[in-house]
Design goal:
Elements (H helix, E strand, L loop, with lengths): L1 E3 L10 E7 L9 E5 L2 E5 L1 E7 L6 E17 L3 E6 L2 E6 L5 E4 L7 E7 L2 E6 L6 E6 L5 E5 L6 E5 L7 E7 L6 E7 L5 E6 H8 L14 E3 L2 E6 L3 E6 L5 E6 L6 E7 L2 E7 L6 E7 L5 E5 L10 E4 L2 E6 L2 E6 L4 E7 L10 E5 L2 E6 L2 E6 L1 H4 L2
Parallel strand pairs: 1-25
Antiparallel strand pairs: 2-32, 3-4, 4-5, 5-6, 6-7, 7-8, 8-9, 10-11, 11-12, 12-13, 14-15, 15-16, 16-17, 18-19, 19-20, 20-21, 22-23, 23-24, 24-25, 26-27, 27-28, 28-29, 30-31, 31-32
Length: about 375
């Protein structure tokens, strides 16, 4: 097993070109969404569309009852939660085109899939899944098969007719994955994550277990559990493929697959106890582990061209997947918390968001290196 050292070379060709702070909406934070070349910022009672090139506001709306969870942007409309309802909103003007059920059902939009939008019904303790037609908000079907509330919907390009939901009970600490038919809502397969973990690792303790974000690549679903466990599952059948265990008390958190390799990060925020790992995506065999990714932690990782980008607080680190080495480390000269884990790439610009501020970086030289 190879250990790769983190670079201490501070990058000098990565320049902050602009900042934009949202003054309205939520007093502390906002969410940023970059979809189909459009940049949106949401802040509880506020939504704005920004031009990612000029950094100017195209339109903004304040004073909404509650705005959250933008899940889809098509050529002319986007779908999000306004008040209690799933709504369709014009990209051009911000006008609400339709609102599902006029606020009678408190919904939490989760995922846009083809002609449908999947939502969680908060009136049913978050255990009911509602599937609506994207065109007009009509209900296609409802499902009540879930044992607990759920928060994540996963899809696979190779299997367009099915989706997988991750559910976790905050009291019992039991975790499940459910696979269902998108057209009908019928269950295809399901399994208990804790039972699989116990069968693979005798030291598993559900009461101390964290649950990672899951990712789907090449027909496989990957997810992590505490302590240091990673599982690969067949997306179509739910069959277990392989298990990886690293001797760490922490949770493998985010996953990126590139060229047959599965990269993951393990992190404890605001500490040096974090690293990047790499496995063979087909077998789960460990290829390498890095030293700490960033001096102040690495909550999430993202793919930026050939680089894996991660960090926390004022630091950003770049790992080159082709050269298999750390190549850049950026430190904000004003020690601002520039990296909150949300970022996007627009042409040769890297756009980051932390708190209520958006940062634009000129990344042309990095992209072309």
């Amino acid at each position: 097993m190879e250990t790769i050292k983190r670079t201490n070379t501070i990058i000098d060709n990565f320049n902050l070109s602009a900042t934009f702070t949202i003054e309205k909406g939520h007093p502390i934070r906002t969410t940023m969404h970059y979809i189909n070349g459009c940049l949106f910022v949401l802040g509880q009672t506020y939504i704005a569309r920004l031009c990612p090139e000029s950094k100017e506001i195209i339109w903004e709306i304040d004073g909404l009852e509650y705005v959250n969870m933008l899940v889809n942007v098509d050529h002319e409309v986007m779908h999000l939660r306004v008040g209690k309802s799933l709504c369709s909103m014009s990209i051009e003007s911000g006008e609400i085109l339709w609102a599902a059920d006029d606020g009678k059902v408190k919904e939490f939009p989760l995922k846009n899939i083809g002609d449908y939008i999947l939502c969680r019904n908060e009136n049913e303790s978050g255990k009911q899944l509602i599937c609506r037609h994207k065109s007009d908000g009509r209900i296609a079907w409802k499902s009540d098969v879930f044992e607990s509330s759920f928060s994540e919907v996963l899809t696979c390009e190779k299997s367009p007719n099915i989706a997988v939901i991750k559910a976790r009970d905050i009291f019992s600490k039991e975790s499940w994955y459910y696979c269902f038919n998108i057209e009908t809502g019928d269950t295809v397969w399901e399994y208990n994550c804790n039972e699989l973990a116990i069968s693979q690792y005798s030291g598993f303790d559900k009461n101390a277990s964290g649950f990672s974000f899951a990712k789907v690549y090449g027909g496989r679903l990957y997810y992590g559990l505490t302590p240091g466990l990673i599982f690969a599952v067949d997306f179509n059948t739910g069959e277990h493929i392989w298990t990886y265990h690293k001797d760490t008390p922490l949770t493998p958190y985010c996953f990126i697959e590139k060229s047959g390799r599965l990269y993951f990060n393990v992190n404890q925020s605001n500490t040096r106890n974090n690293f990047l790992g790499c496995l063979d995506a087909n077998t789960g065999k460990e290829i390498f582990i890095t030293e700490n990714f960033s001096p102040e932690g690495c909550g999430v990782i993202n793919l930026f061209g050939k680089y894996i980008l991660g960090g926390q607080g004022p630091y950003l680190a770049f790992y080159d997947t082709e050269q298999e080495e750390f190549v850049y480390l950026y430190k904000d000269p004003e020690k601002r918390d520039i990296f909150g884990g949300v970022f996007c790439q627009h042409k040769d610009q890297l756009i980051l968001k932390s708190g209520k501020t958006i940062y634009w970086f000129d990344a042309k030289e990095i992209i072309n290196s």
